[in-house]
Amino acid sequence: MPALYLAVKIVGALYLIWLGIGIIRGRLDAEALPHVEAKGVRRAFLESIAVELFNPKAAIFFLAFLPQFVDPSAALPIWAQFLLLGTIVNLTFSSADLLTILLTSAVLRGARRTGLAERVARLVGGSS
Fold it and tell me: Which pick of 24, 34, 62, 91 has the fewest CB atoms within 10 Å?
């Protein structure tokens, strides 16, 4: 279903562009930004898992990617191969999420020290 996959990619890209423009056009004063409560590493990690579980692109990824690595003639039944591959992919994604959360936390601690860093982060975040 390449057409459906392409459509999801295009809609996702347009949404990210729309969000980026909104971030850049927003006021750059630190006082104008909404107050966001700090989250612990555990809560951020659990929220990242929830995002991956409810993300339609994740389901499309599994439907498009994993079947390429399932071998009907292998010793393991097909359902076990899917389970094993899915577990490996999820452990990899979860490890990447945890690493991202820890690194982001360290960067944010440094960026909060100056107002300039916050303004630069907002411009970079909106344009990337």
Answer: 34
